[in-house]
Amino acid sequence: MAGRTRAAAGLKIERVWTTEGVHPYDEVAWERRDVVMTNWRDGSINFEQRGVEFPELWSVNATNIVTTKYFRGAVGTPEREWSLRQLIDRVVQTYRKAGDEFGYFASDTDAEVFEHELTWMLLHQVFSFNSPVWFNVGTPSPQQVSACFILSVDDSVDSIMDWYKEEGLIFKGGSGSGINLSRIRASRELLSSGGTASGPVSFMRGADASAGTIKSGGATRRAAKMVILDVDHPDVEEFIETKAREEDKIRALRDAGFDMDLGGKDIISVQYQNANNSVRVTDEFMHAVEEGKGFDLIGRLDGQVIDTIDAKSLFRKLAQAAWECADPGIQYDGTINDWHTCSETGRITASNPCSEYMHLDDTSCNLASLNLMKFLNEDGSFGIEKFVKSVEFVITAMDISICFADFPTKKITENTRAYRQLGIGYANLGALLMASGLPYDSEGGRAVAAAITALMTGTAYRRSAELAGVVGPYDGYARNATPHQRVMRKHAAAADEIKPIGDVAKAITKEAAKQWQLGNKIGEKQGWRNSQASVLAPTGTIGFMMDCDTTGVEPDLALVKFKKLVGGGSMQIVNQTVPRALRALGYQEEQVEAIVEYIAQHGHVVDAPGLKSEHLSVFDCAMGERAISPMGHVLMMAAIQPFISGAISKTVNMPESATVEDVERMYFDGWRLGLKALAIYRDNCKVGQPLSVGGKKAKAAEKATEVAPVAAAEVEKVVEYRPVRKRLPKKRPSQTVSFTVGDAEGYLTASSYPDDGLGEVFLKMSKQGSTLAGVMDAFSVAISIGLQYGVPLETYVGKFTNMRFEPAGMTDDPDIRIANSVMDYIFRRLALDFLSYDRRAELGIFTAAERTAQLRAEEEGTEYVPPAAPEKPVLQISQAPSPAKAVGSSTELLEAVLGKAADAPLCFTCGTKMRPAGSCYVCEGCGSTSGCS
């Protein structure tokens, strides 16, 4: 570049989002806000920064997350950032300066336009860089921009120790890494001294302990790591069963009274819990499974066959272990390396922790994601031109970052600079499809997703080819020109095979084919700047920064969400994509209002007034009353995989009733459909997590009770009683009572267990979204959970009756003529409906008939004898739609409906329940993630 003039070689940048002469900051209204984060356990303040400056269009949640996560400098000092302008300027101006220095722009004017466009897009949440960029760029810290790392290890103690060290350095910075251990000799092979080798599974213990220690040492998030073993390694069976056997240990220790919840004091005694495990299978192995043949396990010292096993039997063990504990996942080596642009340099052997970044060993990838909802026009069309230009800006900025970035090791520095791997992706796909009136699990939905993905990657590689003409191709391109061009042609051919459904998909598909053809024409002449361009990451924290309803490639989690309010507090609202979808489907405003109100009350669309049955699938979500089937998720992954350089971070949820055979079919279909990796999660398959309660655990608890005397005699340990939550069945007896207390009206719905006993209470007062409705929802959840954990109803009745506050006074209930408050009325009514006469007599609560009979008996001088109570309260099952599940957030909705959230960890930063995001977890409270995005 030294011999070029910038005007001749640099990029000419055109305005897309901005207006000449107007700075992006001057186009928005700004306001000051206070960010105060409290501890969910005791209400104490764990973060406070007042007077931060954000645009009015940014939500409170996005404000809180950016302030707590990305503002640099000690709180309370002059160096502390306090405005979004400072944050964006710190990053964007660093990119512009580096772009100038390394010859990316044709003129100062082009550099300024680039700066303004990037600023506008970040300010308006059109895209976001991955978290390390916000953490580090423009600060005195090392300019670490990558979230994903792949390491390597050889068959020597020195290399293994280097692995531990390098992994620790990456974890310390809050990023994640993956590694393939298949070069380490098997436990059945000999050492040079004549002894037997330890094997890779043994060395995993040390790495696992290291990750756990660094995690508890206060990193910005939990250590995220992936451990991979090839299917032909002699220790593969031990590797497959490793975490399943540890799960058995967790069950045994829990049943003996130890604290085995995630984060519990005893869970650290269990090994291999800090990594995701995956088995790397070859096409040869999968064909052997298909044909029922034998498969050779190969020694690492001399390449000789150590054993021959039945391929189907090994595949069954893989599925069995995943069924038991969700590990290991599966990676398809043949597909991965068939789409490898740099095969002349070496094979792809591993991935990052979330399985979206797959490339050479000792490399890294920095990520950025586009917010797809920003490109959905009011008329339902997709903003193709602006999308193309936005991809150009983002991929250019990402490539510039490699020029100035710092990396944790020398090998990673050299390889990343030589191959320049990038990972552009997107978020809000699920919201885009729903808002467009397209079901996620449909041919139409998959066609739009495939077209957008093809357009994104095609444009990214086209811009990469143009960059090669300006600043040169990546250093490793000359060696890998043939495989790189071959893979580009494969992508282009796949784009030509998209079968668009509808005008929107047709328009996007047409432009995608154009971008691939143009990019390949340029690239074949002057090469490409980047060996890799795109991945689909979980987009956890940055998804919240962009106010996205859905993360990565995921569908909507639920139709209701939790919205934080200015000044504190929160409210439950229906996702804004729902009314937009209804309008796109042709519903009138009156119908939209009625359906949205129904969803607010019930949490789903089943039996919503006026909603056509053919439109129900548009509102299917990851969880809830109408959950998308596991194969629906896999088919979406298969539709977009041919247009991604890397892979897709996603875990496919399966119901608890799923069988081992179902897991086998899922893993086999993933290979058949051309995926690069697949992970499944069966509800309630893990027990070492909070709130993980199910039928199998109840049986385990019964078994523990049977052997408790023996255990007590052999082990001097007091087995502590722990209450077990007894959940109500899907269909349960219930009754609804309308009531008036003073001038307040409301509805009380009480549901009981079929075998007797109150188990659930719902209170409906005031309009949905009001403070009173929110308080009543929260109160209902608290009481219901307490009842299900065994708190006696009479305890609540004793606490809440006679409580005095407004509204109070006359009621319309003949059994309770006057109430001191709504609480007083509610618990008197519950006592009358669900407590025996003897229990109520102790509390002084009687029906009108009972009081009349008591008075008559007193006048007659006889003893009042209450009528014999029936064996069970006779309740009719309501034929009307059940009342709304009182949930406070999408995570609580998830927990209420299915078991995935019940097995989600608590956030290590703020303690809030996390929710799935791709194959990782993200906290809705503070934005922390368990992964690497």
Automatic annotation (TrEMBL):
Cofactor: adenosylcob(III)alamin
Gene Ontology molecular function: ribonucleoside-diphosphate reductase activity, thioredoxin disulfide as acceptor
Sequence ranges assigned to domain TSCPD in this UniProt record: 729-832
Domain Ribonucleotide reductase large subunit C-terminal: 146-681
Keywords associated with the record: Cobalamin, Cobalt, Disulfide bond, DNA synthesis, Nucleotide-binding, Oxidoreductase
Pfam families to which the protein is assigned, alphabetical: Ribonuc_red_2_N (PF08471), Ribonuc_red_lgC (PF02867), TSCPD (PF12637)
Catalytic activity from the UniProt record: a 2'-deoxyribonucleoside 5'-diphosphate + [thioredoxin]-disulfide + H2O = a ribonucleoside 5'-diphosphate + [thioredoxin]-dithiol
Function, as annotated: Catalyzes the reduction of ribonucleotides to deoxyribonucleotides. May function to provide a pool of deoxyribonucleotide precursors for DNA repair during oxygen limitation and/or for immediate growth after restoration of oxygen.
NCBIfam families registered for this protein in UniProt: NrdJ_Z, PRK06556.1
Record protein name field: Vitamin B12-dependent ribonucleotide reductase
The species this protein was found in: Hamadaea flava
